[in-house]
Design goal:
- Helix 1 (about 20-30) runs parallel beside helix 4, helix 1 (about 20-30) packs across helix 14 and helix 6 (about 210-225) packs across helix 11.
- This protein starts with 12 loop residues before the first strand and ends with a helix.
- The protein has 14 helices and 16 strands.
- The protein is α/β, with parallel strands linked by helices.
- The strands form three sheets. A seven-stranded mixed sheet has the order 8-14-9-10-11-12-13. A six-stranded mixed sheet has the order 3-2-1-7-16-15.
């Protein structure tokens, strides 16, 4: 067992739990920061490579980045970094569909994961970042430090701890999991490796959820040669939209006047879209402005208005904000036109197993009547169960029970301060516990697009570096006081 406890003078350590994009970027920026000299940077991530995470650790050829490659640099000072790296990769020559009709490149996601991983590798090889290929099974407070235990036996003493874990798995609508668990073609989480392998070529597939993941599942199945009919449904039947067919600058100013009401903000968005269309822009330009200004808009809204916005507007925001790559949109659109793919709005009135089939009574959202459907396979793509974040992993649950973590007030992740420090059960900052990435959306708002997540990782690294400097200054003061006495 590796054990950093019990040493006479252990190096101060920051432990990062989760080595996907967020965790890798926090680690890399800490490794570059002179203020972290003398500190060890440890990342717990079971995957072989840092930086890939759930989103980019995929070999599915249908999985593509959903924003143009030209906007995916991890270096804010060099927006062309990814595009230059991409131009050197031989995989582009074997991907005739990489160039979309809008003139932009939408490469396969695994390429972006490799790009991030290659940026981090030098720091791992040099020992500046220590990669523990383990899942964390326990985190406990040990005096002024944290004890982080991995499933492989690694025990790390951490003077600062970063929660950079992924979203919780999707949660099936009430009752569905209980009925279908154990069914040979029930897929409760399509992100699990090989999850869709059980679906046969001619299976009739029901997808519960109509957002970005639903589109990925459809594209994956069709790319693999699946020919059976596919039905995707959600309460509103909203499908993730595609990109504009031409480049546009963001349109609209939503921060000159601090909005304090969700209803008034939405009314202003509608007015701005109307103004944009009058000037030849599409809604895409307005949503791009909203995304860029999202952090400040969110901070200006009172907590009750944030909740109202999440409750009423989030489904509409998600399908316009998280756009599908043109290649995926073309697959879904063709299926909708041909009739072998359908997207419906409504609810399930009844669901039961009929041998190896699944019988569903579907109630339409507005028609009021019901339809009887039968399927061979069911896939859940409802999105992460954010409200269950503390129950998603034992170490998170134990930190919650000990009062160091709590859910945020709007149901998007974990509560944290404007400095991205976790808020304890009484609302106070935990000085050496940080929440990084999309799980901090309740405080920071728009933290799902890559530029925003990247900027936030840089911000978190800066907060940790400031903590390291403060600790160093305190240590120097203590030594001087001891010497003076």
């Amino acid at each position: 067992m590796m054990d950093s406890f019990g040493q006479n003078a252990p190096r101060p350590t920051v432990a990062i739990i989760g080595g996907g994009f967020t965790g890798a970027m926090v680690a890399m920026h800490l490794a570059r920061d002179r203020a972290m000299g003398g500190w060890q940077i440890a990342v717990f991530e079971p995957r072989v490579r840092l930086g890939c995470g759930l989103a980019y650790d995929t070999a599915e050829p249908a999985h593509r980045v959903n924003v143009p490659a030209a906007r995916m640099s991890i270096d804010p000072d060099d927006p062309d970094d990814f595009a230059r790296w991409l131009a050197l990769q031989s995989e582009l020559r074997d991907d005739p569909e990489v160039l979309a009709g809008d003139g932009h490149l939408y490469p396969r996601r695994q390429l972006f994961g490799r790009y991030v991983a290659e940026a981090v590798v030098p720091f791992v090889r040099s020992g500046r970042i220590v990669h523990h290929r383990e899942r964390v099974i326990a985190v406990e407070r040990e005096g002024a430090a944290w004890a982080v235990r991995g499933e492989g036996g690694t025990l790390n003493r951490a003077d600062a701890l970063v929660v950079a874990t992924t979203h919780p798995a999707p949660e099936a609508p009430a009752g569905i999991g209980a009925v279908l668990t154990g069914h040979p073609r029930y897929v409760p989480d399509s992100a699990e490796p090989g999850a869709l392998d059980k679906i046969r070529t001619d299976d009739r597939v029901l997808i519960i959820g109509t957002g970005l993941t639903s589109a990925d599942v459809i594209a994956t199945l069709r790319t693999r040669g699946h020919k059976g009919p596919i039905t995707a449904f959600s309460r509103r039947g909203l499908r993730s939209r595609g990109h504009a067919d031409r480049a546009q600058d963001p349109f609209g100013d939503f921060v000159a006047q601090p909005w304090r009401s969700a209803a008034e903000l939405l009314a202003q968005v509608r007015r701005t879209i109307s103004d944009a269309e009058a000037e030849g822009f599409t809604w895409h330009a307005v949503l791009d402005a909203l995304r860029a200004q999202g952090g400040e808009i969110w901070r200006n809204l009172p907590v009750d208005e944030r909740r109202r916005l999440v409750r009423h507007a989030r489904p509409f925001w998600d399908v316009h904000r998280f756009r599908v790559a043109p290649q995926i949109d073309a697959i879904v659109s063709t299926g909708l036109k041909d009739g072998d793919i359908r997207v419906r709005a409504g609810s399930i009135a009844h669901l039961a197993r009929a041998g190896e089939n699944v019988a569903v009574t579907f109630r339409g959202r507005r028609a009021g009547g019901t339809e009887e459907w039968e399927f061979d396979a069911v896939v859940i793509t409802t999105g992460p169960a954010h409200r269950s974040i503390l129950q998603s992993q034992p170490w998170l649950e134990s930190l919650g029970a000990a009062g160091y973590l709590r859910p945020d007030t709007v149901g998007l992740g974990l509560a944290c301060s404007e400095a991205s420090r976790a808020l304890d059960g009484e609302g106070g900052e935990v000085d050496d516990l940080f929440v990084a990435g999309p799980l901090s959306r309740g405080t920071f708002g728009e933290l799902m697009g890559l530029p925003q997540v990247n900027d936030h990782a840089i911000f978190v690294a800066a907060q940790i570096a400031a903590l390291a400097q403060a600790r160093r200054a305190e240590s120097v003061r203590s030594r001087r006081e001891e010497a003076a006495t």
